[in-house]
Amino acid sequence: MEKSDSGILVADVIPGSSASGVLKLEDIILEFGGKKVDSKGYIEHPLYGKQVLSFLAHSGDSFGYSLGKEIPMLVLRDKKKIRLSMRLKPFPYSAVRIPFKNIPASNDFAVEGGFVFLELSESLLEEWGKDWRSRVDRKLLYLYDYYKFHENEGDVGKIVLLSQVLPDESNNGFHDLSFKIVEKIDGQNVKSVRDLKRNIKQGKSDYALISLDDGTEIALDRTKLTEINERIYKSYKIRFSEN
């Protein structure tokens, strides 16, 4: 990289995106759409001044870079400058593991045996208030910062949390649990709240064994769960439609 060069480091490539299969981790983008990129990832727009480089990918025919067209790039890779082109694709929403606040979350939740399950999203994290980054659990913040996208194209699923426990005689000993990551049910990975509900309902054994990230294991008695749920729903005035 020459002294006169500047650019921005590629720290992540979203699977299924325009950059997937074109850019690699630790590439340095020197030029994007024929315009030099500075060390903060900005290009100089002839009308609007400094703009983040992705502006070119969203500005449509103003620069000739609309969906389906290719953006030329100059990239430093392994200490060598190479020219690449990237065909613009729609954003791959299926690659998002933790939905942004401007991407509608599923809003799926489940209350089973008093255990409240929901999916991790940016909107949920913001429930901690304006300074949520300094207040939220460190593990959830780490997931948000580094695992908001799936690693491989075709991967699916969201991060399911046990958000709280509604106290009942059936869940004594678990009342203090909150915002734990649900890893497995009956030994199988959990991919969504809907997936969790289906496995609880359709499992063949008498007990649904739910494993959390801190090592806690919860055994829900399937033979009594309907009775327990009805009691809890009535006690806490919970009403929702079952899918």
UniProtKB/TrEMBL annotation:
SUPFAM superfamilies for the chain: PDZ domain-like (SSF50156)
UniProt cross-references to Pfam families, sorted A to Z: PDZ_3
Domain of life of the source: Bacteria
UniProt KW keywords: Hydrolase, Protease, Serine protease
Listed transmembrane segments: none
InterPro entries for the chain: DEGP_PDZ, DEGP_PDZ_sf, PDZ_sf
Protein name per Swiss-Prot or TrEMBL: Protease Do-like PDZ domain-containing protein
Organism field: Leptospira santarosai str. CBC1416
